[in-house]
């Protein structure tokens, strides 16, 4: 079984988005990663729930994996639920009410995900691990595409993988930032089973080949 590939449209050609999504879907991607940036929690501004709704209403069947990089996430979670997100990720650093935010998502029947930055210790998310379906371990500091993978984040993946086995939990472990056909290997071996890839996939050359490559290089058993 290979990794689940989640191309990030942050690096896509927005003027041809439908085609760009179809390319990765036909190549075997299962999720589509949608980065929501508010210019406050992170320096850039990306796009809002209208994009999620349009993609949901499009022919694509990809699981919509929404990554909220915003302050006061509780205020905008409802609009992303209404827009049709399948997974909603909330940064533990973005709110004093992470438990409440994840509860809102869970109650709506959507998959809750907790996200942690490279500088945040794992213990900060331990109290909510039993209520999430996915944990996103940031492998770069959030805010921009095209950054270098931080190898020191891999030990968090191994820790989470052991934690989940010890406690009989079954959340997915996602990585995001600097993922390519080389950096994915150790992360996948350590237990990450969902991989976001932005600039590696949407490099303007051949997004389909890049998705297939990520699937090929992870086509081995995971612990
Ligand atoms: C970064 C975003 C990522 C970004 C990844 O803050 O969360 O999802 O699109 O881009 P790459 O794969 O280029 O590092
Ligand atoms: Zn992201």
CATH homologous group name:
Aldolase class I
Quantity of strands, as a count: 8
Q: Provide the list of bound ligands, each named once.
A: D-xylitol-5-phosphate, zinc ion
Return the CATH architecture: Alpha-Beta Barrel
Beta-strand residue fraction: 15-25%
> C-alpha Rg, in Å?
16 Å
Q: What is the helix/strand order?
A: EHEHEHEHEEHEHEH
Estimated structural class? alpha/beta
The major β-sheet equals: 8 strands, parallel
The CATH first-level class comes to Alpha Beta
Overall shape: it is: globular
Q: Tally the helices: what do you get?
A: 7
Low-confidence runs (pLDDT<50, min 5 residues)?
Answer: none
Q: Distance between termini?
A: 11 Å
**Overall mean pLDDT score?**
97
The assembly state of the depicted protein chains is: single chain
Biggest sheet strand line-up: 1-8-7-6-5-4-3-2
Question: How would you describe the overall organization of this protein?
Answer:
The relative contact order is 0.18. The protein has an 8-stranded parallel β-sheet. β4, α4 (98-107) and β5 (111-116) form a beta-alpha-beta unit. The chain is an alpha/beta fold. The model has no long low-confidence stretch (mean pLDDT 97). 31% of the residues lie in helices and 19% in strands. The chain has helices at residues 17-26, 49-56, 73-83, 98-107, 154-166, 183-189, 207-217; strands spanning 4-7, 31-37, 63-69, 87-91, 111-116, 134-138, 172-176, 194-197. It is built from 7 helices and 8 strands; from the N terminus they run βαβαβαβαββαβαβα. The chain has one domain (4-217): TIM Barrel. The protein is globular and about 40 Å long. It binds D-xylitol-5-phosphate and zinc ion (ZN).
